[in-house]
Design a protein that fits this description.
The chain contains 12 helices and 12 strands. The protein has about 325 residues and is of the alpha/beta class. Helix 2 runs antiparallel to helix 5, helix 5 runs antiparallel to helix 6 and helix 8 packs across helix 9. The two termini are about 30 Å apart. The chain binds guanosine-5'-monophosphate and manganese (II) ion. The site of manganese (II) ion has 6 residues, from loops.
Amino acid sequence: MKKAKKIDLDGLADKISKAQSILIATHENPDGDGLGSILALGKGLKKLGKKVTIYSKDHVPKMYQFLPGQNAIVSQLKKSARYDLSFIVDLGEIERVGEEFLNFPHRGVTISLDHHARGVHNADFNYCLPKCASSGEVIFKVIKRLNISLDKAMATAIYTAIVTDTGSFKYSNTTEETFAVASELVSHKVDVWQVALHCFETSSQARMELLKRVIGKMQIHSSKKIAWIVLKQSDYKATGALPEEAEGFINYPRSIEGVEVAIAFKEKERGVYRISLRSKTYVDVATVAQGFDGGGHIRAAGCTIEGKFEDVQKKLIAAIQKQI
Ligand code: 5GP
Ligand code: MN
């Protein structure tokens, strides 16, 4: 597997100045950080007169549809399009951008802009700042280096990236710099309550029904250190909720006193489970996820495991127990 060459801000500025048409993409099942980051970068590069396409393989979840400019995000690449430069944002592994992008022959030089400390970063070039709580902060630095003026839409997009990846400035990835960047963003008239309302304080009735079902079946391991929830296709069907509406549910098992690792098993299809992992203070869940070809951060990671539910559960819990 190819490993990307490191690039710095000057190198990035040079590549951007020489490019005319630029493609910007984020990972599958996009989140607030991925979407906020690509929207802010896209708008910034347009201000420099670049021809920009913003791409996400998967649709924008309803909770992020308040983001200015999100309706311009495309989910298919035009065969006739030619790009001098492509950015992949908020992914440690290029595979998470999806097959269409990977097989697209005209994407030009591909640069990863990211903050995953454990990422493989297998693009052509890599600008990764693991100390940043979000890719939004990485984009903020790029925008500053390019002397692009921030506006309310860009500031709102980056602010959304930050609040979602830090859980509203709560997680251990939050630093003094995170607050400093947020403070500058808010000076550009970000409506912080509107962002919070959309990202954290709005539930459809179906989502609440799903939460009731899932919490009712939450389980705790005999060690009392691992707790999990299971989201089956039948749960979505029974409640009418979408899989993306389970965002944040994993915080409930993690919040139990004494629990160190929380798991969400999300049935994607029969025999295929998307796994979300969270830890409270010491277990490195990125390592656990990497053991199943996934990845992420030390306190938040994910992977996909195939098999019968009982086997998937057994394998994963055994891997977590080794870290506890
Ligand atoms: P979530 O549980 O919210 O889906 O994902 C948490 C974090 O884990 C993401 O921000 C991402 O860094 C990482 N992650 C989730 N799923 C995968 C996966 O399938 N592969 C990799 N490499 N990372 C993942
Ligand atoms: Mn991120």
